[in-house]
Amino acid sequence: MSTEELAWFKSSYSSGSGDDCVEVAACPDAVRIRDSKYKRGPQLAFTSTEWARFVAYATKR
Questions:
Q1: Which candidate, 8, 13, 40, places its Cα nearest to that of 26?
Q2: How far apart are CA 45 and CA 52, in angstroms?
Q3: How many domains does the chain have?
Q4: Domain residues for 31?
Q5: What is the pLDDT of residues 2-57, one digit of tens each?
Q6: What does the alpha-carbon distance between residue 61 and residue 55 come to, in Å, rounded to a whole number?
Q7: Could you give the CA distance from residue 43 to residue 41 in angstroms, rounded to a whole number?
Q8: For residue 28, which of 1, 55, 61, 4 has the smallest C-alpha distance?
C-alpha cells in the first residue's frame, strides 16, 4: 500500500485557519503523520505502541 492510498485525516489539534495542519493515517504496520501543505513531502511513521504512548502523553498536557 502506498502512502497515497491511505485515508488521511486532519488532526483535531491543527489550527482552524488551515495553515498549521497535521494529517494522520493509520496503516497495518504504522501510524503516519505529515504536514498537510506537503502531501508528497516527508512523513513520520510510528508503531502502534509508540503512537499510543505519544497520544497518552499529549492528552495529559
A1: 8
A2: 13
A3: 1
A4: 3-60
A5: 666 889 988 776 766 666 788 999 988 899 999 988 888 899 999 999 999 988 99
A6: 10
A7: 7
A8: 1
